[in-house]
Each structure stands twice: as C-alpha cells, then as structure tokens.
Amino acid sequence: MVHFVGAGPGAKDLITIRGKKFIEDADMIIYAGSLINPELLEEAKPGCILYDSAKMTLEEVAEKLVWGHGQGMEIVRLHTGDASLYGAVREQMDILEEKKIPYDSCPGVSSFCGAASSLNLEYTLPEVSQSLVITRMAGRTPVPQKESIESFAAHQASMAVFLSAGMLGELTKRLLAGGYKENTPAAIVYKATWEDEIKITCSLGELEEKAKERGIKKTALILVGDVIAHTSYQRSKLYHPEFSTEFRKGK
Ligand code: SAH
After folding, report:
1. Which atom in ligand 1 lies closest to the alpha carbon of residue 136?
2. What DSSP string describes 170-218?
3. Which atom of ligand 1 is nearest the CA belonging to 112?
4. CA-CA distance, 175 to 169, in Å (whole number)?
5. Is the CB of 15 under 6 A from ligand 1?
6. Chain segment 43-54, per-residue pLDDT in tens
7. Closest by alpha carbon to 239, among 229, 231, 247?
8. What is the pLDDT of residues 61-85, one digit of tens each?
9. pTM of the predicted model, to two decimals?
10. H-only helix segments in the chain
C-alpha cells in the first residue's frame, strides 16, 4: 500500500498523528527533500529505504513505488504541507491506478495554515473578508488565464500566494493592477514554523523591498489583505450574546 502523507509546514511536531504512524511503519519513504524537515525521517524504522524525490523524475518515483509494492512494502510518499496543494500527486495516483496498486491520502497542515499561526492571523474576519484565495504566479507550471492575479485581486479578499517569492516585483504590479492599494496590508512568511522562520508584515507597496532586505527568494508565502492589519472588523455573530444558535439561546 502507498500512503500519500502531508508532512506539515516544517516543524517536526506539526505532522498528524496518523502521518507519523505511517512514517514509523514504512518500509520505504520517498520524501520531497527540498522542503521536508529531515528530522521527520528519524521516526522511520531501521532498514527503511529512503529516497529524495527532489532528485528524481516522476518515472523514477513510479518505478520505486511499483518495485516496493511488488516487494510487499508499506510505502510513504511524503509531501510538504498538505499534498493537495501544488503537490503533483494526481499524476502519481494515476500511475498507481493504472498498475492497480492501492493507495490512500493522509492530510497535512498546509503552509498557509502554518503562516497564519505564525502571525496569529484569522483569514476570515467578519465584514473584512470571508474568503481566502490560494493561488500562485505562473512559473514553469502555467496558470490558466481565467485565474489571473489581477482577477483575484479584484475581489479584495484575503490572498495566500504560493511559489512566487522570487517574483515579487511582478506580483505586486499585478495585485495593484487588479485593485489592491499600495497600502493594503501584506506579509511575507519565510519557512513558517521552522526554526529559522522569518515573518514580515508590511504594506503591499513595500513587499519587494522587505523581501530583498532579508534575502528571501523562495520557501515563502505572500499574504495580502486587510485581515493582516485586523483594524476594523465586526465581532462574530456566533458568540454574540443576542444571537441564538443550535447550542445556546440568545438574550
Ligand atoms: N503542499 C505545500 C505547498 C507546496 S508548493 C503546502 O501545502 O504548503 C511549495 C511552496 O509552498 C513554496 O514555494 C512556498 O510558497 C510554500 N511553502 C511551503 N512550505 C512553506 C513554509 N514552511 N513557509 C512558507 N511557505 C512555504
């Protein structure tokens, strides 16, 4: 059996209990070496075979998965954060389906959650924003035209931009063209939840310069939106004394 496991954003203890158990029981782990905390691999049992997928092609990963399954191994495919976001897991799953190899998925704490915890941030403040846009700038992987940064910026919702810390000039230009203002609150969180995490809150206009000052070009999330400054939100209805819920009667 192959288990796709989300390793969490970085800190070793931010993997799920289930994910940790899969690691402990694995005979083979193929891990995304560029972003996985190596300390997580210390949980593997002696003799567990480790492969770093950063150095492998899809075909090479598939070959190991197929071989390991043939040997009757329990296999963990360890992805950073949660594998459902920019994890390139579907293509692996399709190969396993074709080969009739069983697999399942174990969720992880995505880096956008890790970054929010680092900033004590609520992405969905009442009457500020009730939506979070998760997106990226086009890189080697193109982004469909209908999902342009400008079109999302037009909503003025909270935004978490992945895979784009090396393109901050262009990103800022496009966020401004879409309708955010120079003084829209923004943040850069580099290596959220790792020991060498850097978190910077600033305005959209300052993003590029602040990242440059700290030499941040990768492994960072860019957050944009008024929720980051959290100055003018309304308290929640859910916990308001006058509001009745299924569990509590309002006064
Ligand atoms: N599946 C992952 C995302 C993988 S794409 C997840 O759920 O988080 C890789 C991108 O994720 C990086 O370029 C960066 O934008 C972001 N990222 C991953 N780990 C991060 C961390 N600890 N801190 C900030 N950004 C991170």
Report:
1. 15
2. HHHHHHHHHT--TTSEEEEEESTTSTT-EEEEEEGGGHHHHHHHTT--S
3. 8
4. 10
5. no
6. 999 999 999 999
7. 247
8. 999 999 999 999 999 999 999 999 9
9. 0.95
10. 17-25, 58-70, 90-98, 111-119, 149-153, 168-178, 207-213
